Amino acid sequence: MYIPSFNSFTDGQEIIAFMQRYSFATIVTSVDGFPVATHLPFLVKQEGDKVMLRSHFAKANSQWKQVFDKTSLVIFTEPHAYISPKNYEKEENVPTWNYIAVHAYGKAQIIEEEAKKAELLQHTIEFYDKEYLQQWGGLSEQYKSKMMKGIVAFEIEVTDLQAKKKLSQNRSEQEQKNIIHSLSQSHDTNEREIADYMSKLPDGQTK
């Protein structure tokens, strides 16, 4: 990912927190030189000095057959916001876009053991829909087993993590304030979130 030095996002804990917050991500692989992508809910966890990603494909999705023993790219992104030149002090400026993105690379390993697949589904429900846990617990083992036969669970140990915050760090302090004010007044959730991220940048983080 192209990352100018002033857009570099290097705080490991903050990166993981971002991935966990925006955890519906895109896994991209190459099949015979052609890019293939699937959008999946991921569980992101730091285990010692490792970052682990876990999810599952529908078995009917043939991409799962291509991801193992090859490097995959998992993209975590959002929020994003259009930045109008009206926020700048000089008229001769072009529009742009502010956003945050994390690219995680690694090789997927299949989770074959039924107990570990069941554990993955349990943790996924706990993370995404805790209120469903009781209903899930009351379902028959036969139904759960049938459901698990329809998925392919996997995990990725991240070997390369690239993160970018494009939040107008190259603009003047006044221009940043203008952008934050403009976006914070928006009815669009993405724009308000970008304003919030911008307001949390360390003082003087401009270029």
List keywords for this structure.
alpha+beta; Pnp Oxidase, Chain A; eight-stranded antiparallel beta sheet; 7 helices
Protein architecture, described:
- The protein has 207 residues and is an alpha+beta fold.
- It has one domain (5-196): Electron Transport, Fmn-binding Protein, Chain A (Pnp Oxidase, Chain A).
- The protein has helices at residues 12-21, 64-67, 114-128, 133-137, 141-149, 173-184, 189-199, and strands spanning 24-31, 34-41, 43-47, 50-58, 71-83, 96-111, 151-157, 160-166.
- Strands 1, 2, 3, 4, 5, 6, 7 and 8 form an eight-stranded antiparallel beta sheet that branches.
- Strand 1 (24-31) and strand 2 (34-41) form a beta hairpin.
- The chain starts with 11 loop residues before the first helix and ends in an 8-residue tail after the last helix.
- The model has no long low-confidence stretch (mean pLDDT 93).
Describe the structure concisely:
This protein has helices spanning 12-21, 64-67, 114-128, 133-137, 141-149, 173-184, 189-199, and strands at residues 24-31, 34-41, 43-47, 50-58, 71-83, 96-111, 151-157, 160-166. It has 207 residues and is an alpha+beta fold.
User: What's the CATH C level?
Assistant: Mainly Beta
Count of discrete domains: 1
Q: Helix share of residues?
A: 25-40%
Q: For the CA atoms, what is the radius of gyration?
A: 20 Å
Query: Structural class per helix/strand content?
Result: alpha+beta
Q: What letter string, H or E per element, gives the SSE order?
A: HEEEEHEEHHHEEHH
CATH fold description: Pnp Oxidase, Chain A
Shape: elongated
Under the CATH scheme, the architecture is Roll
How many strands? Answer: 8
Query: Biggest sheet: strands, sense, closure?
Result: 8 strands, antiparallel
- Low-pLDDT segments, ≥5 res: none
Helical stretch tally:
7
> How much is the average pLDDT?
93
Q: Whole-Å distance between the termini? A: 20 Å
CATH superfamily: Electron Transport, Fmn-binding Protein, Chain A
- The protein's oligomeric status is single chain
Strand content: 35-45%
